[in-house]
């Protein structure tokens, strides 16, 4: 790695986890040196004057402390164990926060539908007028849009798709009632419901659990 890229380890959570694991495993561990890492090495060499060529070794000793090895080879220390653990927890919380922030500011995909159901006698005048004129109230999608040619549609790439029938009719309903048989007598689930559905959208009117449903 080039020296000017050394700073990347400080923004890498894996580096903190690796240092913590290395410190936890090597601290308290004695590494016995074996040939060819023993110097000087030969038939007449004395053990009391031999040293280990492994990083962290001390003169006149064939035993290397694990803590000295990771400190010399990697600059890792047991004293950084809990510091690194706290940094890893901090990184985790930071990434969770970024995920939550991204989910909040991300715009939903275009499309979807919703239907508002009003009680009988409480329908706003704008909705009643829209039902009479077969047009949904507040339809921003139709404002400023150029009329398209019949039989033509735009796909996701903006290219024209031919020979596709387009339904522009709006399905509306008024005073819809729905009754189901029930022990002790029938029960009415829908009573005088008004509403509309724009073309190409699926709408479901559902009741509480066990009440049944109508689509």
Provide a descriptive summary of the structure in words.
- The structure is a single chain.
- This protein is of the alpha+beta class and 215 residues long.
- It has two domains: 7-105, no CATH class; 125-141 and 148-203, no CATH class.
- Helices cover 26% and strands 19% of the residues.
- The chain has four helices and ten strands.
- The protein has helices spanning 13-26, 66-74, 81-105, 125-132; strands at residues 30-32, 38-39, 51-52, 63-65, 152-154, 160-162, 171-180, 187-197, 205-206, 213-214.
- The strands form five sheets. It has a two-stranded antiparallel sheet.
- β9 (205-206) and β10 form a beta hairpin.
- α1 runs antiparallel to α2.
- Mean pLDDT is 78; it is low at 140-152.
Summarize the model shown:
The protein is of the alpha+beta class and 215 residues long. Helix content is 26%, strand content 19%.
What's the layout of helices and strands?
Elements: H1 13-26, E1 30-32, E2 38-39, E3 51-52, E4 63-65, H2 66-74, H3 81-105, H4 125-132, E5 152-154, E6 160-162, E7 171-180, E8 187-197, E9 205-206, E10 213-214
Antiparallel strand pairs: 1-4, 2-3, 5-6, 7-8, 9-10
Radius of gyration over alpha carbons?
A: 38 Å
Count of DSSP H/I helices: 4
How is the largest sheet built, in terms of strand order? Answer: 1-4
In helices, the fraction of residues equals: 25-40%
Which overall shape is indicated by the principal axes computed on the Cα atoms?
rod-shaped
Distance between the termini: 64 Å
């Amino acid at each position: 790695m080039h020296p000017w890229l050394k700073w990347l380890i400080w923004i890498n959570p894996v580096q903190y986890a690796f240092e913590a694991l290395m410190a936890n495993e090597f601290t308290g561990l004695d590494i016995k040196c074996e040939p060819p890492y023993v110097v000087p090495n030969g038939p007449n060499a004395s053990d009391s004057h031999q040293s280990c060529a492994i990083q962290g070794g001390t003169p006149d000793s064939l035993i290397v402390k694990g803590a000295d090895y990771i400190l010399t080879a990697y600059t890792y220390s047991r004293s950084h164990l809990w510091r690194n653990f706290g940094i890893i927890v901090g990184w985790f919380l930071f990434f969770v926060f970024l995920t939550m922030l991204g989910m909040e500011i991300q715009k939903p995909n275009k499309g979807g539908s919703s239907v508002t159901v009003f009680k009988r006698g409480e329908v706003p005048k704008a909705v009643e007028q829209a039902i009479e004129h077969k047009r949904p109230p507040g339809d921003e999608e139709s404002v400023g849009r150029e009329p398209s040619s019949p039989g033509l549609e735009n796909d996701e790439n903006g290219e024209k798709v031919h020979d596709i029938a387009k339904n522009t009719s709006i399905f509306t309903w008024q005073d819809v009632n729905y009754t189901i048989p029930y022990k002790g007598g029938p029960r009415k689930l829908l009573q005088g419901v008004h509403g509309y559905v724009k073309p190409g959208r699926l709408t479901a009117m559902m009741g509480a659990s066990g009440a049944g449903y109508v689509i």
